[in-house]
Structure formats: structure tokens, C-alpha cells
Amino acid sequence: MSLVSRRSAIKLSGGALLALSAFPIIKKTMAKEDLLSWEDFLQHCAELSTVQFDTDWDQDEYTLKIEKILQKLHIQDGHIQRFVENYRDRNPYFPEIRALHRESQFEISLIEFAEDELIPLHDHPDMTGVILCVEGRVKVEHFDKLEETSDNNQPLLQKERSLVMTNGDSAILTATRGNIHSLHAEKFTRMIDVFTPPYNRDRVMRSRYYKLDNQPYQDRADVYSAEVSRSPRFSTD
To answer: Which residues contact 156 (CB under 8 A, 6 or more apart)?
Structure first.
């Protein structure tokens, strides 16, 4: 996932930048009366997501607002619980990803990891994402793609942050900040994410997986050359 499609298209407010740098991961406990029902949550998402059509869309400010209402979502709402009760581990070695809601402006998914399942490094072209850990424990690593490439013309990725998410933790990415990321569950884990805009045929076709070199590129701290694939399965040497 990334912050924005072009760096020049972003107008970062000081408050948004401060929040991103100081709180890359947020955990809150809400009183029951402060929680949002599923229908109220969808209405808020629909209203907030209209800003994506503005020419000066501030993706940092937007994702912080989505994160705030995602933290208020009532996880015990019947709509979510019906999906939870119907969980089946149908994809060995890869998490279950099911659509909770989808419309033209945004989509919401439920991701369920069996212990040790992994989504390798991947991107979300021109998309923002906000994710909430409902239960479990998952290691998440975020990278930014540099404009320069390696000597053999492979992309160079710089680590943006690394974190461990547990119950109640949330995190964000935009089209340009932390858009390339991986998730590795240390035990059974459930997460809910909100993507804006949603996947369409073009964004699916442009999405890629990345495999980092074992060592940093030319001894540069946290910068790695990466192999690119349309599949999460890379050949092993």
C-alpha cells in the first residue's frame, strides 16, 4: 500500500506528519456506547472517501480519519460475526481474505491468518489502506520504493517501519508511504482493512510482489534491491 501516486500530489499538514511519525501504530479501548455499528461505520467511510476525488487529496489526513472510525467499529456487530463464525482455512500456507463490503469508492476486507501464515511483500498501486488487528499477533514490515534502481535495474526498497500488531492495534499506509508491506502471523490472527480506492482490474494488473536481497544494497542501511513478481511464489535457488 502507498500514501499517494505522486509525491507532488500530496499536501501534508504538520499535524498529520507528526501523527504519522509519532504514532505509526495506535491502540484504543472504546466504551461500548462509543462504538459504531456496521451500518454507521459504512456511512462514515462513504462520506470520508469522497475526498479521494479532490485534486489536492491529503491521503495522510484521510487515512488518519479512517483509522479513527475503524478503531470505533463494534467488532461484535452481527454482520462481522457471521463472517467470523464461517471461517474455514481453505488456503493452506496463505491467509483467508474475504470481502466484508465493497463499493465504487472503497472496500473492506476480513483477513484471517493461521499461525505462521504470511503475505509476502506486496504493493497496492495508487491506494491507501488502514488495517485493524482484531485478535492475534502479526509482524508487519513497510517499505517505500525509491525512484532510483539498482545497477541491474531492479527496484530499490527502503524500510519505512517495522512493527508487531496485537489486539486493538491499527496502522496505515498511503500510495507513497509504506505502500509495500508484508504481514507474518505469529499465531492465529484476524484483521480488518479498508482500501481507498478499491481494487479494480487496472490496480490488480499492476500489483506486484517483492523479494528482498539478503543484504542491504551497497551497504546502505535499510535499502534493499528486490526481485519483482506478479505471484507470491518466488523460485528458490
So the answer is: 145, 146, 148, 149, 150, 217, 223, 224, 225, 226
Cell of 11: 499536501
Q: Name the grid cell of 210.
A: 517483492
Output the nine-digit C-alpha cell for 123.
504493493
> Is the Cβ–Cβ distance between 41 and 5 less than 8 Å?
no
| Region at 14 (left for phi over 0; alpha for psi -120 to 50; beta for the rest) | alpha
The mean predicted confidence, pLDDT, of the chain is 89
Please list, in sequence order, all residues whose beta carbon lies within 8 angstroms of the beta carbon of residue 61, skipping any fewer than 6 positions away.
Answer: 13, 16
Q: What is the chain's length?
A: 237
- Per-residue pLDDT, 131: 98
The string of pLDDT tens digits covering residues 39-88 is 999 999 999 999 999 999 999 999 999 999 999 999 999 999 999 999 99
From residue 211, alpha-carbon distances to 13, 73, 231 in Å are 33, 34, 11
> CA 35, 39, 44: angle at the middle one, nearest 5?
75
Residue with the three cell numbers 483467508: 96
Query: Are the beta carbons of 142 and 220 closer than 8 angstroms?
Result: no
pTM, whole model, 2 decimals?
0.85
